[in-house]
Amino acid sequence: MKETKLFAGKTLAILSGGGDTPAINSSIECVRNRASMLGFKVYGVQRGWKGLLGEGDVVDLTNCAYNGIYGGTALLSSRTNPFPSKKNPEDRSQQILRNIERYKIDVLVTIGGDDTNGAAKKMYEKYGIPVIGFPKTIDNDLRTHSIHHYQGKQYETVLCPGFPSGAMAIKKLTSKLHTTNESHQRIMVLEVMGRDAGWLTGTAIFGGAQMALVPEIEMTKERQDFFFEQVKEKYMRSKKRSLIIAVSEGVRWWNEEKGSLDMVYASSDLDEYGHPRFGGISGVIASDISKKLGIEARGQISGYIPRSGKCYEYDRRLTSTLADKIVDLLLREDYGKMPVMRDIVPYSELEEYHTDAIDMGNVGNFPLPENYYDPNEFYFTDQYIDYLTNIIGSPCRLEFDYEFPIVIPQN
Ligand code: F6P
Predict the structure, then answer these.
(1) Which architecture does CATH list for 11-137+309-362?
(2) Mutational pocket test of ligand 1: of 16, 76, 195, the residue with most ligand atoms within 8 Å of the beta carbon
(3) Nearest CA to ligand 1 atom 14
(4) What is the per-residue pLDDT for 1?
């Protein structure tokens, strides 16, 4: 007897929108594999929502070889918003509806952050399009309603695919920066992406950054003065007279000349979801440190490094586990939802048992909670270290401890 698969004759399409991460191809591959096992034909929509505008730009993924370890997204990405925005007042949702019908798409899986998944949720609520979300962002600021079990208590936290790979990249980069910094006995200000949240900046302390500034805490004049004092003290106390300070790209920093709190933008041009592009705060802070303390300081922008390269093992298993939860949603035809990790667990415990499904889209941003960052120390707490150890292992840095005997010239 010929076995008919449950969803034979149906089509599931996948798209990815927003900033890429090293875990998107893995998410696409894992969802594709499970959906095709259930009998779906699997399509890929190219360039996010853009691929469903006009005549559409859709490819067939069902039987193609796919490399989920290679970072980025083979389906390409854009920050296209189907709904009216300041940048583009046109409502293009009807074009999307038309293409969903033309390509006979029965279910749409949207891999994205709050913007992409928010638009998908709107398509579901307004037009009844069956959508399932899949979280992604290196910023790790999407409210996933996850739980961090710490010292016998439960705390709300977040875990988004893409963050583990980004975190590992920042840990490794910071660990390496010590060698050049120590050689010149400098202060290095390392700028880290993450928009309005300091999650990714915190990962630099796992590579040995001794201080950190996050966007959640404004650097007012008073706090800035206190910060300079702390920088001087920590630098003078450091064994090799060198200090790495990780700073979030979105830090609000007191501008002495203007007398205002400023953010530094690479471009003030807004995308279709209303976001400007940050970049350059590390140079400003380094120059202010040099001026104030007379210690040589340099800015270093880590930029797209955390978004680049291979998918890290934790992300690979995380995306696979969340894709297992998607099977559950598909079988129950439970749309407008997004799989998430309910519990923060180490690699070996990443199993569907620890997942949950939450309402997708407009879930809101979740900044770094107070119990993860100590503004008096300009450093992350033991609780954050515990959270991150689950994901990227213990802190480490390149180290070479030396104490050479001093030579006194003999007469
Ligand atoms: O949201 C992800 C992110 O990498 C942010 O951390 C960063 O501010 C932004 O995207 C950069 O966007 P783009 O790829 O448009 O330069």
Answers:
(1) 3-Layer(aba) Sandwich (3.40)
(2) 195
(3) 19
(4) 65
Mutate to test the pocket of ligand 1, among 140, 277, 302, 305 (most ligand atoms within 8 A of CB): 277
336, 121 contact by CB (below 8 A):
yes
Q: Is 139 a catalytic residue?
A: yes
Of 139, 271, 288, 315, which residue is the catalytic one? 139
> Which residue CA neighbors atom 10 of ligand 1 most closely?
19
What was the pLDDT predicted at 86?
86
Q: Find the 65 Cα to ligand 1 centroid distance in Å.
A: 29
Distance 21 CA to ligand 1 centre (A): 10
* CATH 3.40.50.460 is right for the domain spanning 163-308+369-392: yes
Q: Residue 366: in which H helix or E strand, if any?
A: none
Q: Give 78-135 pLDDT, tens digit per residue.
A: 999 999 988 889 999 999 999 999 999 999 999 999 999 999 999 999 999 999 999 9
The one-character DSSP state at 20 is -
Residue ranges per structural domain of the chain: 11-137+309-362, 163-308+369-392
CA–CA distance, 193 with 217 (Å, rounded to integer): 16
CATH fold match for the domains 11-137+309-362 and 163-308+369-392:
yes
Rounded to whole angstroms, the Cα distance separating 176 from 398 reads 6
| Tens-place pLDDT, residues 284-306 | 999 999 999 999 999 999 999 99
- 217-230 confidence digits (pLDDT tens): 999 999 999 999 99
Transcribe 34-86 into DSSP letters. HHHHTT-EEEEETTGGGGGSTT--EEE-TTS---SSS-S-TT------SS--S
Centroid of ligand 1 to alpha carbon of 193 (angstroms): 7
